[in-house]
Amino acid sequence: MGDCALGNGKKKGCLIFGAHFYQLGFVLKIFTIVGARPQFIKASVVSRAIKKSECIDEVVLHTGQHFDQNMSDVFFEQLNIPRPDVRLDVNGGSHGEMTGRMLIEIERAIKDYAPDRVLVYGDTNSTLAGALAAAKLHVPVAHVEAGLRSFNMNMPEEINRILTDQLSDLLCCPTDAAVQNLNNEGFDSKPAKVLKVGDVMQDSALLFSKFALPPQGLGGQSNYVLATLHRAENTDDIGRLSSIVQALNAIHKNVAEVILPLHPRTRAAISDQGLDLDVKIIDPVGYFEMLWLLRNCGLVLTDSGGVQKEAFFFGKPCVTMRDETEWVELIEVGANVLVGADRDAIIEHVQLNIGRIVKDELSLYGGGKASGEIVRHLQG
Ligand code: UDP
Q1: Distance (Å) of CA 135 to CA 42, 64, 82, 182, 305
Q2: 98 in a structural domain
Q3: Which of 27, 138, 164, 253, by CA, is between 20 and 30 Å from 153?
Q4: 334 lies in some domain
């Protein structure tokens, strides 16, 4: 055992993981940057693991990219995430404008807090702005969910994740495919550390599934289709959006009830385009309600990244309304199928798969140990 000499919250009894940092008795200051719904969920489990470490203090910055009760606050309340130390209010506007405003304010905050390391998650504008601000100030960056690729540069997320990986020195990959992607980009001969740690979303699904609770007004449903829809490639393309809306309506009418917690971006796009969506629409739900919906559904129909995996964690088949996925292993094991925005393909694959039970025979995502692994490597 070593002894942490500094007085900023964590004082003594830290384990020595071989890093001279600890042998000298310092407390590592991690500056976590989050801003969007999936990042709150991912950070919740890593923050818990950090809290258990005697040698890391965490400062949390929320960019404000998602900001209202049901896209942000509910996750902090349910998942008991530390209240952000810094709360920005950067949302709306174009990608460049949003990222630029975040960059200015995150740089200021990093200078104020002088962290030892910045920790970013996923692939949003908050991720890129955080990594860029840190790298320019020579603060090392750790990226959780490193190495994921869709190979579609039209996706803003793909640009964000490629650039963030380039700026990071600790790349925490969820899967073998992610490690392979980085090796293909030459990371195996760079000084940056590339690690397969598993998927933090599996940690959170396992940790919180006992708190699953039905969304208001729901309760006895089963074997329904749980749908989510928010990717810009679908919401911003009238042809794709209209085809998906037609498929959802047909499934709801002829196959099974479709329950759709509707993302604000999609709600606005459907209304702007005057489309008639006739399924069970509910407001975006909290994480506990989402876990209940996942547990009780017969199939997941989505264009989300994270929800594809969550379907798998709950043994549900997934039909993905995209042309490619970063989670290629789910396609390989037959748990997930890509149908793009093709109306007939969406209906056909929902009919074929609903009610099927999916098994995780290969422990594809690490089995709930990712956050512990990440913290171990942050320390070492
Ligand atoms: N989610 C939620 N409530 C909802 C819809 C999604 O809690 O109404 C959760 C979902 O369970 C997953 C995360 O939000 O953990 C995924 O976020 P999203 O689909 O917005 O982003 P992506 O994963 O595509 O980046």
Answers
A1: 22, 21, 25, 19, 26
A2: yes
A3: 138
A4: yes
* Length of the chain in terms of residues written: 380
Mean pLDDT of the chain: 93
- Terminal Cα distance for the chain, rounded: 14
Mean pLDDT of 1-13: 42
Cβ of residue 44 lying under 6 Å from some atom of ligand 1: no
| Residue with the larger pLDDT of the pair 245 and 7 | 245
Tens-digit pLDDT profile for residues 322-345: 999 999 999 999 999 999 999 999
Give the separation between CA 278 and CA 257, rounded to whole angstroms: 10
State if residue 35 touches ligand 1 by the CB under 6 angstroms criterion.
no
Same domain as 149, residue 56: yes
CA proximity to 172, closest of 153, 187, 186, 184: 187
User: 3-state DSSP call for residue 319?
Assistant: strand
Cβ of residue 132 lying under 6 Å from some atom of ligand 1: no
Candidates 37, 75, 126: which one to mutate for ligand 1, based on the most atoms within 8 Å of Cβ? Answer: 37
Query: Is the C-alpha dihedral spanning 354, 176, 31, 57 positive or negative?
Result: positive
Domain that holds residue 219: 211-353
Alpha-carbon gap, residue 299 to 318, rounded angstroms:
6
Q: What is the pLDDT of residue 354?
A: 98
In contact, 316 and 299? CB cutoff 8 Å: yes
| 306 CB near ligand 1 (under 6 Å) | yes
CA-nearest residue, atom 25 of ligand 1: 305
Residue 360 resides in a domain: no
Total domains in the fold of the chain: 2
Tokens describing residue 132: 């860029």
